[in-house]
């Protein structure tokens, strides 16, 4: 059965709501409140406050009200590369990446008061600080730049070995030495000029981040990821989504500019809602949200 997938974005004074439907049924809901600043994806120059081998974790001051939590498992973990292939006809993970974690000694390699670069992977919750990783990456629309690596990883969701070979040869021409470069699924079929333009945007972000690392004193934010709505279009607006409808003109224009640079073939699937009311009312998404609320209250 063919899946009829659509996305709807509603903007109001209270924030932004993003709904994803499949065959007219609500399957995902993302909410960005106007009074809350999302932290996942942000990168910080932090300062180590405590190293607790018994907990297999360290606590890092990143300038937030509670220290960030850094599990030792998030230091040099090859698990972060498991969805990538490193050869055109093989999905095996490079063995060299496993040695980082094996040689890690928290009592020697982490010292209280040292600076450390970390990226948030989980929002703070119930008075606890955010969860972080040392596996820092700079996301682009088509690829991801990984400092302190030296590889080209292709998304396993790209199954055509000839396309993987083309993408690998293309990005090899501009990949900097001693940086990892991950090619995302959405890069499949993209022209060389579009791939290179996306890399240049990511590289510019890295250069700006690197300057902040050198100049700012810990704790300090050195990189902030996109807003939720921008992340959704970057990560979820794939060719499988037959249309994306927004009810805000400014957001529509921003998405249009983004798609012209990254996926011009998807511009035809972007629509601006016309008429009164919100897009959630017009497409009966509010009804679906109401039913979910009633179900939760009944439990």
Rg over C-alpha atoms, rounded to the nearest angstrom: 21 Å
Q: What is the CATH level 1 assignment of the largest domain? A: Mainly Beta
CATH superfamily of the largest domain: Nucleic acid-binding proteins
Q: Which whole number gives the mean pLDDT?
A: 82
What portion of residues belong to β-strands?
25-35%
Number of helices: 8
Terminal CA distance reads 32 Å
User: Given the helix and strand composition, which structural class is it?
Assistant: alpha+beta
CATH architecture of the largest domain: Beta Barrel
* Count of DSSP strands: 16
What are the low-pLDDT stretches, counting only 5+ consecutive residues below 50?
A: 91-102, 292-299
State the major sheet.
6 strands, antiparallel
Which topology of the largest domain does CATH recognise?
Answer: OB fold (Dihydrolipoamide Acetyltransferase, E2P)
Helix content: 25-40%
User: What are the secondary-structure elements, in order, as H or E?
Assistant: EEEEEEEHHEEEEEHEHEHEHEHH
User: Outline, from the CA principal axes?
Assistant: globular
Number of domains: 2
């Amino acid at each position: 059965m063919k899946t009829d997938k659509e996305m709807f974005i509603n903007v109001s004074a209270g924030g932004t709501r993003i709904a994803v439907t499949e065959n007219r049924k609500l399957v995902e809901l993302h909410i960005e409140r106007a009074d809350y600043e999302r932290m996942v994806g942000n990168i910080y120059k932090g300062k180590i406050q405590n190293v607790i081998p018994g907990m297999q974790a360290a606590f890092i001051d990143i300038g937030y009200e509670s220290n960030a939590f850094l599990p030792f498992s998030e230091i040099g973990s090859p698990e972060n590369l498991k969805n990538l292939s490193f050869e055109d006809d093989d999905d095996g993970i490079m063995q060299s990446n496993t040695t980082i974690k094996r040689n890690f000694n928290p009592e020697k390699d982490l010292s209280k008061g040292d600076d450390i670069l970390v990226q948030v992977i989980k929002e703070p919750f119930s008075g606890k600080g955010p969860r972080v990783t040392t596996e820092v990456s700079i996301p682009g629309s088509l690829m991801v730049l990984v400092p302190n690596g030296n590889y080209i990883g292709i998304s396993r969701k790209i199954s055509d070995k000839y396309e993987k070979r083309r993408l690998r040869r293309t990005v090899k021409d501009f990949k900097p030495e001693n940086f990892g470069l991950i090619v995302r699924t959405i890069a499949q079929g993209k022209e060389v000029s579009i791939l290179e333009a996306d890399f240049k945007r990511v590289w510019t972000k890295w250069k700006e981040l690197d300057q902040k690392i050198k100049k700012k004193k810990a704790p300090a934010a050195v990189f902030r990821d996109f807003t939720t709505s921008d992340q959704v279009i970057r990560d979820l607006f794939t060719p499988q989504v037959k249309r994306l409808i927004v009810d805000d003109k400014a957001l529509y224009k921003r998405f249009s500019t983004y798609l012209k640079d990254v996926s011009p073939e998807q511009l035809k699937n972007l629509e601006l809602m016309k008429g009164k009311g919100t897009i959630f009312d017009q497409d009966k998404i509010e009804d679906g949200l109401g039913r979910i609320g009633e179900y939760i209250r009944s439990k």
